[in-house]
Amino acid sequence: MAEWFRRSAEKIITYDKREIAEGTWIKCPKCRAVLFHKQLEQNNHVCTSCSHHFRMKSKHYIQLLFGDSHIEEIGGNIKPLDPLEFNASKSYKEQIKTSEEKTGLTEAVKSIKGEINELPVVVCIMDFSYIGGSMGSVVGERISRAINLARKEKRSLIIITSSGGARMQEGALSLMQMAKTSAKLAQFANEGGLYITLLTDPTTGGTTASFAMLGDIILAEPNALIGFAGARVIKQTIGEDLPEGFQRSEFLLEKGFIDHIVHRKDLKQKLSFFITFFTDKN
């Protein structure tokens, strides 16, 4: 495209046709603006028109929080098995293989040791793109090892949740992770550790019923879906109409279930502030 034809206004971006491939334009579900995927990624997957927070993968949260600083993965060598030999429309082994090929991940959580603005932390980041961020035995083990390391090295612990709940393909083994992680967090709390959770869209089911809501400070992204059971199930159970947006972060903040809503652009600074405020001994 000739340079003289390119628009130079600050808010108008012109793209070369050669830069555009199928699937590179994304429509915002809130304001219906059409967004170029590179522009969206540069803005931390937040709509430039209405600030709608798109779901973001674990690798992007790692980049947002740690940048190019040195990090170490915890429990990355632990991978899921198929203890129940579960079969439905396709086998659990097939699902694991497909998810690994599609996402490049080996499980629905990454546990990271590093520093945020020179503050020592352990961060667990769930990824909804891997089997709906569901919590199986490996997710529970990776989070448990992260908690153990945070206890041992006196680091602040942060867990970023994005999950549909317990993984049904592992049956009771997945439900046991609720008790396992909660017990580890109780030990961490008894030793004075600081635990911060960030609830992102969606945080539901057994994840919400365990470690997601146990933070000393519970943060959430704007308009995140947060709850245990689905709205339809709750409505059928209680036989009442539900308030509009009752499972969104803004409603939960109003009712005192969470402490603060954080825009993604402010996340690193807010986490640094809370860690410094609650751990500074001077």
Question: Can I get a quick summary?
Answer:
This protein has helices spanning 37-42, 58-66, 92-103, 137-153, 172-190, 205-208, 231-238, 249-254, 267-279, and strands spanning 25-27, 34-36, 72-74, 109-116, 119-126, 156-163, 195-203, 217-220, 260-261. The chain has 282 residues and is α/β, with parallel strands linked by helices.
Q: What's the helix count?
A: 9
Structural class: alpha/beta
The topology string of helices and strands comes to EEHHEHEEHEHEHEHHEH
Spans of at least 5 consecutive residues whose pLDDT stays below 50 are 1-21
Question: How many extended strands?
Answer: 9
Work out the strand percent.
15-25%
Mean pLDDT comes to 92
Whole-Å distance between the termini?
59 Å
Q: Could you say what the CATH architecture of the largest domain is?
A: Alpha-Beta Complex
* Whole-number count of domains: 2
Write the layout of secondary structure elements.
Elements: E1 25-27, E2 34-36, H1 37-42, H2 58-66, E3 72-74, H3 92-103, E4 109-116, E5 119-126, H4 137-153, E6 156-163, H5 172-190, E7 195-203, H6 205-208, E8 217-220, H7 231-238, H8 249-254, E9 260-261, H9 267-279
